[in-house]
Write a structure and sequence with these properties.
This protein is of the alpha/beta class. The protein has 7 helices and 28 strands. Helix content is 19%, strand content 30%. The longest helix is centred in the C-terminal third of the chain and has 19 residues. The two termini are 31 Å apart.
C-alpha cells in the first residue's frame, strides 16, 4: 500500500494556480489577488466632517462654556456631496453633516450635541480643538500607496477598500470549477423513496458542499448507472467543463466497479490502495487535461478522502497557501484504538477547556456511518504505528469548522 503522504504528493505534483483573470469585485470574495493594487487617489479624497454639527474656526469657540456659550452666525448648510465654496469668516460657522466637505476657513467641527441646534444663529457651549472631528485628506491612504499586496485572500473589508479607491474589478485567481459525479445502479435521488436494494445518493451532496466550503465553484450531476459507455460519456462531458473532476463509487475490487473498469481502459488514472482508514481505495489521474479523483463509495471514506487529497489540490489551484489544513493539538478525552499500519482519521467532538482542546472519538467509526460524521467537529489523526491511545494523551486533530484554526 502507498502511504498517505506519497499519494498526496502525487496528487499535488504539477498542480499550479489557475491563470489570473479579471474578476468583478462581487465575484472576487475569497479569491486570491494576483496583482499589487495601488491607490489612484487619497482616501479620504478631501477634508470632511466626522460628525453632524457645525464647521467652525477653533479660535472662535475656544472660550465657550455652558454658562457662557459662544454665539456664531450660521452662513451655510453643507450636506454630504455638496460642492461648497462659502468661506467661514471669524464669528461665523456652517452647519455640516457627516461626510460633507469642510468649507474654506473652518478648521474644526463642533458636534450638534454641544449646541442649541440653531439654524440662523447657533449657541455653542463647549470648545473644539484645532482639527477636532475633521477627517483629513489621505489620513487613511495616500495616492500611490499600496492598497493590497498580491497573494491577499480577498475578504469583505478588502473588497470595500478596493471599491473605495475606485476599482470595479481585480486580477485574481478564479475559483476552481469542480464537477462531482456519483455512479451506481443502486442510487436514487433525494425525495424518492428507495426500493429494495436501493439507497439515496448522499455522497454527491456531501462532496459538492465540501468543495464549495473549500472555495470552489462546484456542480453536482445526476448519478450515472453502472453502464461503461454511459459512465465514460458522463466523465468526458464533466471533464470538459471543470478544473477538477471527482467521482464517488465504483473503484473497489468488485465485479461491478464500472468507474475503475472504464478508467483502466482509458489508461490515464492510477488506482492504488492507500494506507489509511477510512478511504483505502483511491484513484487519481487525468481525464483529458483535467485532474480526476475517484473516491470510494462509502460516504465517510469519500469525505475523508476529499479532505486529505482533493481539498489541497483545490487550494493550490486557487492560489491559496498553505494548501493543507493545519493540525491542532488536543488532549484525548477517552481511550481509542486504531488499525496497525494505517493512518486513521477518527471522527471526534471537540471541547474547548481552559487549557486547550479536548478531542473525544465518537462511537460508530464505520465508513458508512454518516450520522457520526455529522456530529463530528474534527478528525483525530492517528499515526500508522499507533494502535492504542489512552485518555489524556496528546493528539493532532483536523478541525472541520470553516475557520483555519
Amino acid at each position: 500500500m502507498k502511504s498517505v503522504d506519497e499519494h498526496l504528493a502525487q496528487c499535488l505534483q504539477g498542480v499550479r494556480p489557475l491563470p489570473p483573470v479579471e474578476l468583478p469585485l462581487l465575484d472576487a470574495a475569497g479569491c486570491v489577488l494576483a496583482e499589487r493594487v495601488t491607490s489612484s487617489w487619497d482616501l479620504p479624497r478631501f477634508d470632511n466632517s466626522a460628525m453632524d454639527g457645525y464647521a467652525v474656526r477653533a479660535a472662535d469657540v475656544a472660550v465657550a462654556t455652558t454658562g457662557e456659550p459662544v454665539r456664531l452666525k450660521v452662513i451655510a448648510d453643507i450636506a454630504a456631496g455638496s460642492n461648497v465654496s462659502t468661506r467661514v469668516a471669524p464669528a461665523t460657522c456652517a452647519r455640516i453633516m457627516t461626510g460633507a466637505p469642510m468649507p474654506p476657513g473652518a478648521d474644526a467641527v463642533v458636534p450638534v450635541e454641544w449646541t442649541d441646534g440653531g439654524t440662523d444663529v447657533v449657541h455653542i457651549d463647549q470648545p473644539a480643538d484645532l482639527g477636532a472631528h475633521v477627517r483629513r485628506t489621505g489620513d487613511d491612504l495616500s495616492a500611490g500607496s499600496v492598497v493590497l499586496a498580491a497573494g491577499t485572500v480577498l475578504r469583505p473589508a478588502h473588497l470595500g477598500l478596493l471599491a473605495a479607491v475606485g476599482r470595479s474589478w481585480v486580477l485574481g485567481h478564479p475559483r476552481p470549477r469542480v464537477v462531482v459525479l456519483a455512479t451506481g445502479d443502486e442510487l436514487v435521488q433525494p425525495g424518492v423513496e428507495p426500493g429494495v436494494g436501493q439507497i439515496t445518493d448522499s455522497n454527491s451532496f456531501l462532496l459538492v458542499s465540501a468543495a464549495r466550503a473549500a472555495g470552489a465553484v462546484a456542480e453536482r450531476v445526476e448519478p450515472v448507472v453502472d453502464d461503461a459507455d454511459l459512465v465514460l460519456a458522463a466523465l468526458e462531458h464533466a471533464a470538459a467543463r471543470s478544473d477538477v473532476l471527482v467521482t464517488t463509487g465504483g473503484v473497489s475490487a468488485g465485479a461491478y466497479d464500472v468507474v475503475k473498469e472504464v478508467l483502466t481502459r482509458v489508461g490515464t488514472v492510477r488506482f492504488d490502495r492507500v494506507a489509511m482508514r477510512p478511504g483505502m481505495p483511491q484513484g487519481h489521474g487525468v481525464m483529458g487535461a483535467t485532474p480526476l479523483f475517484t473516491l470510494p463509495g462509502n460516504p465517510v471514506s469519500a469525505f475523508v478522502s476529499f479532505e486529505v487529497f482533493v481539498r489541497p489540490v483545490l487550494r493550490r489551484l486557487a492560489g491559496r497557501d498553505p494548501v493543507l489544513r493545519r493540525l491542532v493539538p488536543a488532549v484525548l478525552g477517552a481511550s481509542a484504538t486504531s488499525a496497525n499500519g494505517k493512518r486513521e482519521y477518527l471522527r471526534a467532538t471537540l471541547t474547548t477547556m481552559d487549557d486547550g482542546l479536548v478531542a473525544t472519538a465518537l462511537t460508530g467509526q464505520g465508513s458508512h456511518q454518516l450520522a457520526t460524521l455529522a456530529r463530528a467537529d474534527g478528525l483525530i489523526v492517528v499515526p500508522e504505528d499507533v494502535t492504542a491511545m489512552s485518555a489524556g494523551e496528546q493528539v493532532d486533530v483536523l478541525t472541520l469548522d470553516e475557520g483555519e484554526r
